[in-house]
Amino acid sequence: MLLLGHPVPSGPPALIGVFIGRTRDQVGRVERKLDLLLKHQGINLVSAAEADVADLMKAGRKIDAIKLYRERTGAGLAEAKRYVEDLERRA
């Protein structure tokens, strides 16, 4: 089986740990590159999501607003919930 173009080891846990470590490193590099590209293009994911999140909040769809924020920004659940609740307090 392949994952991210590499065969997934089926041996001892140590080999699997090495594979997971390499995969995390690769994902980290991709995320840093993406952040640089977004910054270079002047794209702010939070700003881009804010209007749509606010519209959902006005419609009383808080959970959908949290989901949308997570989808658009890649934020975790706690961060998205905090953002939406802060937005709600400012309104």
What tags apply to this protein structure?
single chain, 91 residues, mainly alpha, 2 domains, two-stranded antiparallel ribbon, 4 helices, elongated
Provide an overview of this structure.
The chain has 91 residues and is mainly α. It contains four helices and two strands, in the order ββαααα.
Number of domains: 2
Rounded mean pLDDT score: 86
Number of helices: 4
Q: Which class do the helix and strand fractions yield?
A: mainly alpha
Order of helices and strands: EEHHHH
Order of neighbouring strands in the sheet with most strands? 1-2
Shape: elongated
Low-confidence stretches: none
Percentage of residues in helical conformation: over 70%
Roughly what fraction of the amino acids lie in strands? under 5%
- Cα-based radius of gyration, to the nearest Å: 18 Å
Largest sheet: 2 strands, antiparallel
Number of strands: 2
Distance between the terminal alpha carbons, to the nearest Å? 50 Å
Summarize the structure.
The protein is mainly alpha-helical. It has helices spanning 13-40, 45-58, 62-73, 77-90, and strands at residues 2-3, 6-7.
Could you outline the blueprint of secondary structure elements for this entry?
Blueprint: E1 2-3, E2 6-7, H1 13-40, H2 45-58, H3 62-73, H4 77-90
Antiparallel strand pairs: 1-2
Helix pairs in contact: 2-3, 3-4
